[in-house]
Design goal:
heterotrimer; A alpha/beta (296); B mainly alpha (131); C mainly alpha (526); A: 296 residues; 10 helices; B: 131 residues; mainly alpha; three-stranded antiparallel β-sheet; elongated
Chain lengths: 296, 131, 526
């Protein structure tokens, strides 16, 4: 068995409509074992809908979803017992105290590590006796993260983990993501529209837009294939120049700036043929890549 | 060892780590034989993916700046001088290329550039303490 | 100030006119239903004390049903605090709105029911009095909103005004004797004074609210609250997920029924001590109170079935949806917790009533005549069965996470029946009404039995239920049905529609065991 190609999440042709609106349209996605997978998209792109399918809260209207090779709807114990999940709204029972929350959650997971849970509780500065409803937003996110991490899940799913949180809590969350995958064989899937964070920690990215996966690749490939190139021509150009794999192009007269989306392009030939010079050839931040891809 | 990661200017993160460690080695801030933090620790400090740090370390090892002593960790290599010198020349060359490109954009002639360089150098010399 | 008031009034009416209309119609509908049934059975004797009591009770219910959405729609006054408006303006506008709406609504309601049913009930006195009571309640809430005093203060004020209202119809204890047809100047004076006092209290309370203060009794509150807190430092340890989830359900929802029973005992005793001194009446009240258990069991069932994350949401929350537990297991634990809660509440009731009964025997006091006439051997277990059926119905409504759908279904059926009854009322031949009611009862019974059957078959098909459990449920149903029909009420056998309705309701006692896992899976995976 080839370990490298073993995938933790396998989604095929997933389609979902709510009434007349088609939110997911034939999604194919494969999340390999070990590593951080970033699912990016704008607000309302369908990230939460997709994640709900992974938890078993939505049943595929078309297509299939498999986690660890199992169907989350049919086998909640087999799947959810190895998953740590933090929802976007940080849903936790408001009436419980932090200590009770830890006791309650620990009963469901045989791999719960009390030592590790205590360590997290201390570093997150959570008071055992505090009621969940009195926690601030950031503390609530930390509490949710604690119970998701303490049983050392094989798969950690975070839905918009950083939204609405201050930089200190965000650091905690990113740190938790990093520490999770530093342990062999564990996987993290998180959705976010804070792209600078995704850029820091993700190994692989998928862009969800218009109900489809616009692009799915490793972070390396993404950064290498997307470049901003500025050309200077000897003569003013009336039409924008064309290069294969070009995503956008703007400028006027002799100077034109284009964004390329793939490494396999005919830029070199085009430059040689037209006698233009390459003034700039820069890599793009993930933010810029996303905007270019989505605003086309 | 202070490394600053920025996600706004588009430079890949591993490249930023490589460049900054290279700079610190060549400028002497990281002396030969100094120990670098393990991959996992640096990843947690910088809040970046450990694979990224691993890739940076690999490149630096291939470039001869770092060496990996199996049980002990990662250290700055003692080979130092010829490598450092080459690297220093590379850094300065890049900066000079940038300067020349801009000067060309502004239509400075070769002589004008040289004169400007000499003037700035004299000014620089006079403000330096005696070596 | 007036244009601001007009703006507030416009906002309130535009947002809430539909709610108000519907709750008005709802209140009227409720009253009409009962009156229509009485009229069909020719039990409508105009000057009977029972009729007068019915009139007063209807008014109480009507005022509550209409006032609740008003308070809800007026909303949290805190949203006005950053607008340049005085606290007095905010408080007065809200209280005046309440007064006008409640009073106007009562007048309308009385005129309508008088016309349809052919009565002559008074309008002015009750309208002003109950509207004043609503305003008093509102003002008291403004004043005591954030403190523990809210319940006692509002409770006492409501009780005082409610009892004053009762004395307009007769003595404080005992049955009413006459209608409140004319309002004397003395009565006007009392009502106007109460209204003015409420306005003052309300304005003061609003001003306090704006500064974030309330009546200051911090230390007392902390002391009282400490009674309800479990000792911190001792956190439970669970052997497995099942026992953890049982604790979860019990701690969150299990306290309601036993708590209500205890509170009920104290409440009944307290009111009895004020208005009546005949202990046999208290004995009878405790006994009848066992049937009130069914109402609270229904509410408790709604609560148990609610897997939503916040009070307003019906859908299952993410936290519970991501528990590594099968639907069969999780719903089973909920049903167990509900059963345990009901059992405990019922045992509390038995204990309380039993103690009083024993006390009467020991003191040699004979129970009241009403009690001796009505009591049967099966009344006590019947309270448990009724309560369980009510709980089961409540549970099934909310556990599917589609409360709106069920509510619409229930409401639709009810409106259908009401319209039919009122319409047929105007026909000359009364037997049509009887046929209609018979038809409705039969339809209801058949659909309940059919639904229960479908629940079991579907649950079996989806393997949420074992064959043994299915057979066990069937056996239990047959046993219960036979006991009820033959042992308790052979009369039911002659009245077809009632028999069918009865069998349908009995089916609801076994329905939850299949309906709960099915409902939860419908809720959890959409």
């Amino acid at each position: 068995m080839d370990r490298a190609s073993e995938s933790v999440i396998e989604i095929q042709s997933l389609t979902r409509r709510f009434g007349a609106k088609e939110v997911l349209n034939g999604i194919d996605l494969s999340v390999p074992k070990g590593g951080v997978f970033g699912l990016i998209g704008g607000n309302g792109a369908g990230k939460t809908t997709l994640i709900k399918h992974l938890i078993g809260m939505l049943k595929p209207q078309h297509g299939s979803v498999r986690i660890f090779g199992k169907d989350p709807v049919d086998d909640p114990v087999g799947v959810l017992g190895r998953v740590g999940y933090l929802s976007e709204d940080r849903d936790l029972p408001n009436w419980m105290r932090v200590g009770e929350l830890m006791s309650y959650t620990s009963a469901f997971y045989p791999r719960w590590d009390n030592h590790y849970a205590e360590e997290l509780r201390n570093s997150f500065d959570l008071d055992r006796n505090a009621k969940v409803k009195t926690l601030s937003r950031g503390q609530r996110a930390r509490a949710g993260l604690l119970v998701a991490l303490a049983h050392r899940p094989d798969l950690l799913i975070l839905d918009e983990p950083s939204s609405g949180l201050d930089p200190v809590v965000r650091r905690d969350i990113l740190g938790a993501i990093i520490r999770t995958i530093a342990d062999e064989g564990r996987t993290v899937l998180f959705s976010s529209h804070l792209l600078d964070e995704v850029e820091r920690v993700a190994d692989r990215i998928a862009i969800l837009h218009g109900g489809r996966i616009q692009l799915a690749a490793s972070m390396e490939e993404m950064k290498e294939s997307h470049r901003r190139v500025t050309l200077r021509f000897d003569k003013a150009q009336t039409q924008p120049p064309v290069v294969s794999g070009m995503l956008s192009c703007e400028g006027e007269g002799q100077e034109w700036t284009m964004i390329l989306g793939q490494t396999d392009n005919n830029l070199a030939q085009m430059v040689a043929a037209s006698g233009a010079t390459v003034i700039e050839n820069e890599s793009l931040s993930l933010d810029e890549i996303f905007l270019t891809r989505v605003l086309r | 060892m202070r490394i600053h990661i920025s996600t706004t200017d588009g430079v890949p993160i591993y490249m930023q780590i490589v460049n900054q460690i290279k700079y610190q080695v060549t400028s002497g801030k990281l002396p030969p034989g100094a120990e670098l933090p393990p991959i996992r620790a640096l990843a947690e400090t910088l809040v970046v993916n450990p694979n990224t740090v691993a890739r940076a370390y690999r490149e630096l090892q291939q470039g001869g700046f770092l060496e990996n002593r199996r049980t002990a960790g990662t250290f700055v290599s003692d080979q130092g001088s010829p490598l450092a010198l080459r690297e220093k020349r590379k850094i300065l060359s890049e900066r000079i290329d940038q300067l020349l490109a801009e000067a060309h954009q502004m239509n400075f002639s070769h002589e004008e550039i040289q004169q400007l360089l000499k003037d700035r150098y004299d000014l620089f010399q006079s403000s330096q303490p005696a070596r | 100030m007036f244009s601001a008031m007009r703006a507030l009034a416009w906002e309130f009416l535009k947002y809430g006119w539909l709610h108000l209309l519907l709750s008005f119609l709802g209140g009227v509908a409720l009253v009409l239903s009962i009156l229509m049934i009485l009229k069909n059975q020719n039990a409508l004797v105009l000057d009977d004390p029972g009729m007068i009591m019915l009139h007063t009770i209807f008014l109480y219910i009507n005022a509550m049903v209409f006032a609740s959405p008003i308070f809800f729609l007026l909303g949290n006054p805190a949203r006005f605090f950053t607008i340049p408006l005085t606290s007095r303006a905010i408080a007065l506008s809200q209280m005046i709105a309440t007064f006008l709406l409640v009073a106007g609504q009562i007048v309308l309601y009385t005129l309508l029911t008088n016309r349809i049913v052919g009565l002559d009930w008074p309008t002015l006195g009750p309208a002003v009095c109950l509207a004043t009571t609503a305003v008093t309640f509102q003002a008291a809430v403004y004043l005591t909103q954030r403190s523990l005093w809210m319940v006692p203060v509002t409770g006492i004020l409501l009780l005082a005004e409610g009892l004053w209202f009762k004395t307009r119809y007769g003595d404080l204890s005992g049955s009413p004797t006459h209608f409140w047809n004319t309002v004397t100047p003395g009565e006007w004076a009392v009502m106007i004074a109460a209204l003015a006092g409420s306005f003052v209290m309300g304005c003061y309370g609003m001003a306090l609210n704006r500064c974030g203060e309330s009546i200051n009794t911090r230390t007392f509150e902390a002391w009282v609250l400490s009674w309800f807190e479990s000792t911190p430092g001792g956190f439970p340890v669970f052997a497995n997920g099942a026992s953890a989830h049982f604790w979860f359900e019990w701690k969150q929802k299990g306290w309601l029924l036993p708590g209500v029973v205890l509170l009920g005992f104290f409440g009944f005793t307290f009111v009895w001590a004020i208005v009546d001194r005949d202990i046999t009446n208290l004995h009878y009240a405790f006994f009848v109170g066992g049937y009130m258990l069914a109402l609270w069991a229904f509410i408790s069932g709604l609560l148990f079935g609610n897997y939503g994350s916040q009070d307003a949401r019906h859908e299952i929350g993410h936290f519970l949806a991501s528990r590594p537990m099968t639907n069969r297991n999780m719903s089973g634990i909920t049903v167990q917790a509900a059963l345990a809660s009901l059992a405990l509440g019922w045992l509390f009731w038995i204990a309380g009533f039993g103690a009083l009964h024993l006390l009467l025997n020991v003191l040699g006091i004979a129970p009241s005549v009403k009690f001796v006439e009505e009591v049967r051997w099966w009344y006590v277990p019947a309270t448990l069965v009724f309560a369980w059926i009510a709980l089961g119905i409540g549970l099934l409504i909310t556990i599917a996470g589609r409360g709106v759908l069920y509510f619409q279904l229930g409401l639709g059926s009810y409106i259908f029946w009401l319209i039919g009854t009122v319409a047929l009322n105007f026909l000359s031949d009364p037997s049509w009404s009887r046929y209609f009611n018979a038809g409705c009862a039969t339809a209801a019974g058949v659909s309940l039995i059919g639904w229960t059957l479908w629940l079991y078959l579907e649950a079996r098909r989806r393997q949420l239920l074992g064959s043994q459990e299915l057979l066990l449920a069937l056996a239990a149903y047959i046993l219960l049905a036979v006991t009820v029909v033959l042992g308790i009420s052979p009369r039911m056998l002659t009245d077809g529609p009632i028999l069918i309705l009865g069998l349908g309701l009995i089916a609801m006692s076994v329905a939850p065991f299949a309906g709960a896992p099915l409902g939860l899976s419908w809720n959890r995976t959409r």
